[in-house]
Amino acid sequence: SGDYLDFSGIRVRSRDCKPIAVFNGDECVYVPRYFSGQTCDLAYEQCVPTAYWGRNFIVPRMAMSHPDYVRVTALYDGCSVIRNGLTPVILNAGETYEYQLNLGVGDFISASSPVSVNMYFASVGMYNTGDPSMLTINPIEQMLHKVTFASYSTEHTNNHKVNVLLRTAYKDLFTLDGVAHPSSFSTIP
């Protein structure tokens, strides 16, 4: 119908503390939201339980040559969100702060209480590269030591990229399939 419905900040709880999984997204999303360009795509992610939300995040710049979008959602009232040391934005429970990611190396977000951070990639019609999609950004508090992942190729998906976030002190220890890549990193201030 063309109506814009935003369910950000809605809380879902199971009855009797039964384990559940919650997914969010849109079957045909345009990024930015009011851009009806050449492409819309399914954007779909499993929600991170609030027990695993964090206070510190690094939002990386992707390899595309266009700005993407970031949304921060607060868990509690009076949450102060600071991006790259700028003036704090104050959010109440369930409120979101949305901004366009700069073309620099990325952003550092810190919050006074737990938040959820999602990144949205722009529609191809905006910048002639990429399709709209979403990515949940994990907090620094949830960083892992070892990750195994898979990618696949099709006639339309044959160019692969990977972003790795790690502490500067560990860049010489990083390997991808056993090969070191210390010069491939940029520092996020």
What does this structure look like?
The chain has one helix at 124-127; strands at residues 23-29, 41-46, 54-60, 69-74, 79-83, 89-91, 96-100, 106-121, 133-137, 175-176, 179-180. With 189 residues, it is mainly beta. Strand 10 (175-176) and strand 11 form a beta hairpin.
Radius of gyration, taken over Cα atoms and rounded to an integer in Å = 18 Å
Count of helical regions: 1
Annotation, overall tally of beta strands: 11
Beta-strand percent range: 25-35%
Q: What is the approximate shape? A: globular
Low-confidence region ranges = none
What fraction, in percent, of the residue positions are helical? under 10%
Please, what is the average pLDDT? 81
* Helical/strand content category: mainly beta
Descriptive key words:
two-stranded antiparallel ribbon; mainly beta; 189 residues; 11 strands; globular; 7-stranded antiparallel β-sheet; single chain
Short description:
The protein is built from 1 helix and 11 strands. It is mainly beta and 189 residues long. The mean pLDDT is 81.
Topology:
Elements: E1 23-29, E2 41-46, E3 54-60, E4 69-74, E5 79-83, E6 89-91, E7 96-100, E8 106-121, H1 124-127, E9 133-137, E10 175-176, E11 179-180
